[in-house]
Design a protein that fits this description.
The structure is a single chain. By secondary structure, the protein is mainly β. It has a domain at 315-445: Alpha-Beta Horseshoe (Leucine-rich repeat, LRR (right-handed beta-alpha superhelix)). 10% of the residues lie in helices and 18% in strands. It has nine helices and 41 strands. The strands form nine sheets. The protein has a ten-stranded mixed β-sheet, with no helix packed on it. Strands 27-28-29-31-33-35-37-39 form an eight-stranded mixed β-sheet, with no helix packed on it. A hairpin with a 2-residue loop joins strand 2 and strand 3.
């Protein structure tokens, strides 16, 4: 590809460029962004390199001669004005139709539809394969008819087709690829035919309007994050044919009320139903040999020795069955109406985030059988006033009682010496600051707290790693949808134009952009999710999105498709100088964050500062798109999680109890955002690079740039983000995407956002 020549003497020699296009012999290597209008590829050209014309926003058409034998991956990606790719009829390898859509010669593979294509499209009957990212970013495509010859819908084939309202998948299709319909925010229903055997990861993530999905009887696996951040989805029936439900598969589906699981399921991934706040029951077929459920719709393994998930809408008291020995990670996460829980004497371990965000839980007794309390097990239990801990506990995890602001009394059945031998990890100041009552015996009734338990502060953070973090998020969703919750929950759909402008236009909703290498907060959405420093297109890496801010933590991060254009990643270089080097944790729990990644240091810093906990225990989802709810939550936490001074809230899509609630109120009070309109914040809309730079700049007091020198051709003086971008460049927060582009309307990934925060604040 063109990156192989960048920086070479040949590349820098202007004499080698012909009308803003670089050739090496018979090979077209790269076109500059400034190229405009129609371009005719030179006769005798054999190959067009990967990403050769990517981001050529003013290019309107390309004419390909009969000599071309190979067109590289993503050669015409992000060409927003490209109306047609026209191939000479004599070409033996490629062809085009009357709409300028690119095919192989025999028209059995549809390779690429130009981004500006508008309206309906019928795929020719000859087509058997819809290529990877074939319609990616066709934001004006409203409906598509897929012929009965198609067997494969490729990765990202219809990704970010924002106007696509309906699609009929014929019985001939056997595979729906990863990210196939990701971000199709107008798609309302999907019927997956009986011919399909595999639903790829993120296949329908961030489809905000999706209300129903019918899964065919031949589907055997539902990929990780497949439906992450689909807030309008109300019920799902998983047929007997399905054996595997991937990690975070339904993460941050905030409107999901009921799930029915057939008898064939043998594996349910981590956080598959994480941050589903309306879920009233998960019902398992009695013939299933791996899983079971009780009369309350709580999910267990078959012999009920492991409690896996309590539905998010469960209300009142709950008694854990005596058969249970372990309470799983996130088992009661965000069960905000759970008032009390009785833990039996057979339980030996309480998992990570097991009771996080149980806002109504006022007291809990941990029996003598329990030996370990996981990370963030009771974090954000704002009403928890007392906890009884048995003397068998040997370890209390990181932040296990973080933000338990009402906790006043701890009743410990052992001696003070035994208490001092417990390994109590970081972030448990609320536990340690409470009054410890030693040698407590269960027969003694702990005295009532002198004051009424405080109301839950509703301080969400992304679903503890936790898309997000969804809350971050998806949530991504956790981190909330994370973060996925960081996550991919995103009830709102992105408006196409901000209806109001503060002093500067209030953050415009993002243009659908390609997500960088693959996955990854907060749900809801996913989403928000480009990693290569060279900023060249790479295959999308993950999610993400946390969902709510922080989509929870997939134990295994799906690997990215081997090829898939993605938006360039943020410049990896760390700021050359940093006053007071911040303390960076040395332990890296994330399998998708490598030491060599440009965002590695930033991610560890953000986790150490409790800004995010990732999408799960082992996944950060750095390439998942970040949502607006996640970024204000990240920023709010980075600034110390200050309490809003007022509860005034004009946004109909921001409600008390959401992880981003306080963050949004704080951001509005401090002039960081005014929302997408007077009544809409768009918490689950994907955040753009221009918006993120603006948020950061405003949070620092809107400092005037020292210079008006603007290195970017796509940043104009009248853009609302103009001063913010110049300030960010001056302060080494970002250096753009390369080649004189900032890409302000591209989606911002979770990896980019923590990098921006680290450089701006750390």
């Amino acid at each position: 590809g063109y990156s192989a020549f960048q920086g070479t003497a040949y590349y820098r020699d202007e004499g080698n460029w012909e009308n803003d296009v670089l050739y090496v012999g018979k090979h077209l290597i790269e076109a500059r962004y400034s190229i405009s209008g129609e371009y005719i590829v030179r006769n005798n050209t054999l190959t067009i390199a990967d990403s050769a014309f990517s981001y050529c926003d003013s290019l309107t058409s390309v004419i390909i001669p009969d000599s071309v034998t190979s067109i590289g991956y993503g050669a015409f990606s992000y060409c927003d004005s490209l109306t047609g790719i026209w191939v000479d009829e004599s070409n033996q390898y490629y062809s085009s139709d009357e709409y300028g859509i690119l095919f192989n010669k025999s028209k059995t593979e549809l390779i690429q539809c130009p981004d500006p294509y508008s309206g309906e499209y019928t795929i020719p009957d000859s087509v058997t394969s819809i290529g990877n990212y074939a319609f990616y970013g066709c934001v004006s495509l409203t409906s598509v008819t897929i012929g009965d010859s198609v067997t494969t819908i490729g990765d990202g084939a219809f990704r970010d087709c924002n106007s696509l309202t309906s699609v009929m998948i014929p019985d001939s299709v056997t595979t729906i690829g990863n990210y196939a319909f990701y971000g199709c925010v107008s798609l309302t229903s999907v019927m997956i035919p009986n011919s399909v055997t595999t639903i790829g990861y993120y296949a329908f993530a961030a489809c905000h309007a999706l209300t129903s999905v019918t899964i065919g009887d031949s589907v055997t696996s539902i990929g990780s994050f497949a439906f992450l951040g689909c807030p309008s989805l109300t019920s799902v029936t998983i047929p007997d044919s399905v054996t595997t439900i991937g990690n975070d598969a339904f993460y941050s589906c905030s409107g999901l009320t009921s799930v029915t699981i057939g008898d064939g399921v043998t594996s349910i991934g981590d956080d598959a139903f994480y941050s589903c706040s309306s879920l009233t029951g998960i019902w398992v077929d009695e013939m299933n040999e791996a899983y079971s459920s009780d009369e309350c719709g709580v999910l267990f393994n078959k012999d009920k020795s492991a409690l896996i998930v309590c539905p998010g809408a469960y209300s009142g008291a709950y008694t854990v069955p005596n058969s249970v020995t372990s309470i799983g990670n996130g088992a009661f996460f965000e069960c905000t109406s759970l008032t009390s829980v009785t833990i039996g004497d057979s339980v030996t371990s309480i998992g990570d985030r097991a009771f996080s965000y149980c806002d109504s839980l006022t007291s809990v007794t941990i029996p003598n059988s329990v030996t370990s309390i996981g990370d963030r097990a009771f974090s954000y239990c704002d009403s928890l006033t007392s906890v009884t801990i048995g003397d068998s506990v040997t370890s209390i995890g990181d932040y296990a009682f973080k933000y338990c602001d009402s906790l006043t009394d701890v009743y410990y059945s052992g001696t003070e010496e035994m208490w001092n031998e417990i390994t109590i990890s970081d972030g448990n100041s609320d536990l340690l600051d409470a009054t410890i009552h030693f040698n407590y015996e269960p027969s003694e009734e702990p005295s009532e707290p002198s004051e009424e338990p405080t109301e839950p502060s509703e301080e969400p953070t992304e679903p503890s790693e936790e898309p997000t973090e969804t809350s971050e998020e998806p949530s991504e969703p956790s981190e909330e949808p994370s973060e996925p919750s960081e996550e991919p929950s995103e009830p709102s759909e992105e408006p196409t134009e901000p209806s109001e402008e503060p002093t500067e236009p209030s953050e415009e909703p993002t243009e659908p952009s390609e997500e960088p290498t693959e996955p990854s907060e907060e749900p809801t959405e996913p989403s928000e999710e480009p990693t290569e420093p060279s900023e060249e297109l790479t295959e999308p890496s993950e999610e993400p999105t946390e969902p709510s801010e922080e989509l929870t933590e997939p134990s295994e991060e799906p690997t990215e498709p081997s090829e898939e254009p993605t938006e360039p990643s943020e410049e990896p270089s760390e700021p050359s100088e940093e006053p007071d080097e911040p303390e960076i944790p040395t332990e890296n729990p994330f399998t998708d964050v490598k030491e060599s990644d440009y965002f590695a240091t930033s991610v560890l810093w953000a986790v150490g500062k409790n800004i995010t906990n990732g999408m799960s225990a082992t996944s950060f989802a750095p390439n998942a798109n970040c949502t607006r709810g996640q970024i204000v939550t990240f920023l709010w936490r980075a600034c110390g999680s200050p309490e809003p001074t007022s509860t005034k809230n004009n946004f109909k899509d921001v409600t008390a109890g959401e992880y981003y609630y306080k963050a949004v109120l704080w951001a509005v009070e401090n002039g960081i955002t005014t929302g997408l309109s007077a009544t809409s914040f768009g918490p689950n809309a994907t955040c753009t690079r221009g918006q993120v730079a603006t948020f950061l700049w405003r949070s620092q007091g809107e400092p005037a740039p020292e210079s008006t020198n603007n290195p970017f051709s796509d940043v104009k003086t009248n853009d609302y983000y103009f001063n913010a971008v110049l300030w960010a460049v001056e302060n080494n927060v970002t250096q753009g995407m390369g080649n004189g582009k900032f890409a302000p309307n591209d989606s911002c990934t979770r990896g980019q956002i923590v990098t921006f925060l680290y450089r701006a604040i750390a």
